[in-house]
Amino acid sequence: MALLDVQGLTRHFGGVGAVFELSFSVNEGEILGLIGPNGAGKTTVFNLITGFVRPSKGTIRLDGQSVVGLRPHAVARRGIARTFQIVKPFPGLSVRENVTLAAFLRHPARKDAEAAATVQLTRVGLAGRVDELASQLTLMDQKRLEMAKALATRPRLLLLDEPMGGLNATEVDDASDLVRQIRASGVTVVLVEHVMKAIMRISDRVVVMNQGEKIAEGRPERVVEEPAVLAAYFGKRVA
Amino acid sequence: MTRRLLPALLGVAVLVAIPLSIRNSFFLHVCILILMWTVLGAAWNVLGGFAGQVSFGHAALFAVGAYTTIILYLKGGLAPWWGIPLGGLAAALVSVPIGLLCFRLRGPYFALATLAVAEIVKLVALNWESVTAGSVGYLITTLPPVRLFGLEVNWERKPPFFAAAAVLAVVALLTTGWLRNSRLGAYLVAIRENEDAAEAVGIDTVRAKVVTLALSAFLAGMGGGFYAFYFRYVDPDAVAGIGLSMEMVFIAVVGGLGTVGGPLIGAVFLTAVAELVRDRFQMGHLIFYGLFMMLVIRFMPEGIWGRVRRLTPGARTGG
Questions:
Q1: What number is the ipTM of this complex?
Q2: How far A238 CA sits from the closest chain B CA (Å)?
Q3: Which end of chain A is less crowded, N or C, counting CB atoms within 10 A of the terminal residue's CB?
Q4: Domain residue spans of chain B
Q5: In angstroms, what CA-CA distances link A206 with A32, A95, A201, A219, B121?
Q6: Which pTM value belongs to this model?
């Protein structure tokens, strides 16, 4: 059975449709790429799954259980963690404190939470910066911090919203390796990304969205050749 | 441990020494006011300083405490020292529905909603005459006789009130200290820093805020109860006015938001300012509060106590 199953997901804001009749599923242990041109509705899909935005229609099931209508903290407790495209650290707190707050979800005692935070910080390569303020980190490190926070909630499913946006080529390679390591540790990953090189390298499967609808799905090297996808990205003439 | 224990012992020693050594009843009165304002500043600070939820309506909670205490005494014969904690409890209970409603709003909208709640409470107090006696208010003429260590407590003198205020201030500061080191306190700081991010890592932000408001209300309600006990007079203007809400904000901001000692420092400064100018201006002290607050925000936005802590080496975890 799929770990995440989304059926007929629809959301409109007033008269404007953001996501329309979207259905897809994510298998356990998979890295699924969610791609599409700007404004396709990818971030809205994340907001719908994690409870920040309520669906107008449709079902979202984690391991068979509906998460529709749960508030974000409850979704996190169920085992879905996310990062934000525009990073949202706790800016005035130290890196360690940032991740400790996330670790409290599974470790009520501060000592345990701090230990768990250290593990995740080491994993993402921030072990040397634990005492710095989150607001003082570079963008790359803030993205790492986002991941460490998400991982510290011990998710089964991790939603990464453009973890590589704004990074240089070496950093993209590092981030790709990190995502693969996360999957290897048993966490299923859904990845929204514009950096195609990374998507092609690390996704097992991609779902392509355009204007709120799914237009293609399949193995990355196949999908990018589909006419609908080319049309969405480059216009009809190219396709 | 000694770093924390030493100032605490020093504080208790000062609290014991003041009523024993000072015979000037005006000075004792000022000290009592400082302690009462410490409680109120701490109450506001719990919510505004730690959780970053700015309330302009804490007078409402103060009023609930004041009315509960005075009504229980005058109509039920319950002594104020029982009435004060019950006043805190009543304020905490009232705060829960208020929180559930107002916390649907964020930032400035929340602040405006609390302002509206305070006005509603004031109007209720003015018009629900069968319970609150309306604009006439309640007056305590005599306090119940008490013998302590074989001596009759003289309610016409200040020391017994000083002792009560000191106990409340210690409770308020201990509560804040506990909160700072607790998981709830950490959650509140996360909410203050970024509410969406807090939700995303599994923090039930609404629950954390409602619980904190109740805690804040408990302290504010006890402050109100003490007010009724000490001034022996409660009417809507005295206990539910907007000025009162503002003074709580001033004290917390001037002393240092999100610090434990801040409200005490803020209360000392602002009570001193108020008493210095009260001879010449009736309500003028509020103007000076405002001026003082502007100066603090401009030159030390972390508040007086926040600045002191930053200047003390190794004080990052203290205070």
A1: 0.89
A2: 41
A3: N
A4: 24-138+153-242
A5: 5, 33, 11, 6, 57
A6: 0.89
